[in-house]
């Protein structure tokens, strides 16, 4: 067990190691993350008109790969721990890490698409929910509340706050609606690395965990279930689903802690951060 949180002020041009330290980045890194994050947001924006009934999820993955490559970036998931796709597409009761396939989307589905372009050495990691055709009210409510959870978490992110303040705010908001907060997957530090310290848990106690300091980069990516919080992994080794097969939703932003708050790197330039997008 790590007794002390170690912070490491990094040279933005240096190689960074996955050594458990929380990296504190400088202005050049913020600029790199702004560009990578903006590309992630542009990809999620471009998907809006494509996420319709009848589309195959592997066709959406092809689109993500092509747009990422055309922008001079690489999908960080491609080849990551044996993952062979350019994004994750998680439909209905799939919590996260859904694998693009020949399966088609159908009217009433709720879908998370999670992209991570690696641009000039920086990772922009973001996901949004999409509504396919006519979605029932209780599913739309889950999507709305999950977005609120993400943004309420981000509101806690400023120097001097603790990481646990973020999870506490998210958990309180979700549980007020009797939704379940997934425990098995967390947000994460990122930058030159895709998944780095710290782990950003989405159900936590306020006042606990590492103190937030300017220059920290991490994601917040709450997964919220309409039912119980439990998940299981399917035999493909990736797909996480709700144990009770209830619907699940997720949104993700990549952020950086600034002197007086935080900067969101993955905001939609078109104002399409959450549905309805029409
Ligand atoms: N983008 C996901 C995250 O938010 C990670 C996906 S890893 C994969 O951390 F291999 F499943 F694609
Ligand atoms: Co992430
Ligand atoms: Co992601």
Task: Using brief descriptors, characterize the structure shown.
278 residues; three-stranded antiparallel beta sheet; 4 helices; binds cobalt (II) ion
Bound molecules: 2-amino-4-trifluoromethylsulfanyl-butyric acid, cobalt (II) ion
Q: What percentage of the residues does DSSP assign to strands (E)?
A: 15-25%
Mind telling me the C-alpha Rg? 18 Å
- What is the spatial order of strands in the main beta sheet? 3-7-8
Largest sheet: 3 strands, antiparallel
Number of helices: 4
Number of strands: 19
- Segments where pLDDT lies below 50 for 5+ residues? none
The H/E string reads EEHHEEEEEEEHHEEEEEEEEEE
Distance between the termini: 48 Å
Helix content: 10-25%
| Derived structural class | alpha+beta
Q: Choose one word for the global shape.
A: globular
Q: Overall pLDDT, averaged?
A: 97
């Amino acid at each position: 067990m790590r007794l002390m949180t170690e912070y490491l002020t990094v040279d933005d041009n240096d190689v960074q190691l996955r050594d458990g330290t929380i990296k504190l980045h400088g202005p050049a890194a913020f600029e790199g993350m702004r560009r990578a994050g903006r590309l992630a947001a542009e990809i999620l924006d471009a998907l809006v008109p494509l996420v319709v009934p009848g589309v195959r999820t592997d066709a959406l993955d092809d689109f993500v790969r092509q747009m990422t490559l055309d922008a001079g970036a690489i999908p960080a998931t491609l080849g990551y721990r044996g993952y062979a796709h350019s994004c994750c597409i998680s439909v209905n009761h799939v919590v996260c890490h859904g694998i693009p396939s020949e399966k088609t989307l159908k009217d009433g589905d709720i879908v998370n698409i999670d992209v991570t372009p690696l641009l000039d050495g920086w990772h922009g990691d973001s996901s949004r929910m999409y509504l396919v055709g006519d979605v029932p009210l209780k599913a739309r409510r889950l999507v709305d509340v999950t977005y609120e959870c993400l943004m309420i978490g981000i509101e806690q992110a400023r120097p001097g706050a603790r990481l646990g303040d973020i999870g506490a705010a998210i958990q309180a908001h979700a549980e007020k609606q009797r939704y379940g907060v997934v425990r098995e997957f967390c947000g994460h530090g990122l930058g030159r690395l895709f998944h780095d310290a710290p782990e950003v848990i989405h159900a936590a106690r306020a006042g606990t965990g590492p103190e937030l300091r300017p220059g920290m980069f991490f994601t917040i990516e709450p997964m919220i279930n309409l039912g119980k919080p439990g998940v299981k992994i399917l035999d493909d080794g990736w797909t996480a689903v709700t144990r009770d097969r209830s619907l699940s939703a997720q949104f993700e932003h990549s952020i950086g802690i600034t002197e007086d708050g935080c900067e969101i790197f993955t905001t939609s330039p078109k104002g399409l951060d959450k549905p309805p997008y029409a």
